[in-house]
Amino acid sequence: MSGVDEGTGPEADARDVARVLAGDPEAFAGIVRRWQGPLYQLAYRFSDETGAAEEMAQDAFLKAYRALAHWRGDAAFSTWLFAIATNSYRSWLRREKPKSLPIEAAEGERQPPAADPAERRERERWVRRAVDELPVHYREAVHLFYFHEMDLAAAAASLGVPEGTLKSQLHRARHLLERRLAPLLGAAGTKERVCPT
């Protein structure tokens, strides 16, 4: 997962958790330093708002701090932390409706596909809107696997589902996105952006 400080790893996380549990709350700063970028990026993918993402990431760290004693160490700390964050972000999404337009609203904005950076950003915005309109379990699968670039095992563990279930959710999500976006972006552009290789 990108964004984690180089030169650190599972040992640093385990060491800091042990120090916090032994009565040194300042050791949690090392965990925050290593994981604030990835947790913020994940929150931003869920919320698409800077302020909300910062608040969501802080809330996830608070929940993780309070639950540190429950990390058993038999799974990677990052998997455990991302599971807490994902559940926290899910709760946020249930409380706050995504501020996206229905995909049908973008039909009036349709323009021919082009390589222009501004038009590419517009296409990406349409994809983002379409992802936000997916059912929650498909949306979460896409966020973790494609946007946050988690591998299949880590994304499945964070969502609390078997890998086969996640594969199925990703397949169905891609199918729904391709169907929704084909009229807007053209089949070639949709395949390229929605189905990363």
* Main sheet attributes: strand count, strand direction, barrel closure: none
Query: In terms of structural class, how would the helical and strand content be classed?
Result: mainly alpha
The number of strands is 0
Rg from alpha-carbon coordinates: 18 Å
Distance between the termini: 17 Å
Total discrete domains: 2
User: Which term fits the overall shape?
Assistant: elongated
The portion of residues assigned to helices is: 55-70%
- How many helices in DSSP terms? 9
Question: Mind explaining what this structure looks like?
Answer:
By secondary structure, the protein is mostly helical. The chain has two domains: 86 residues, Orthogonal Bundle (Rna Polymerase Sigma Factor, Chain: A), CATH 1.10.1740.10; 92 residues, Orthogonal Bundle (Arc Repressor Mutant, subunit A). It is built from nine helices and no strands. Helix 2 crosses helix 3, helix 4 crosses helix 7 and helix 7 crosses helix 8. It is elongated and about 60 Å long.
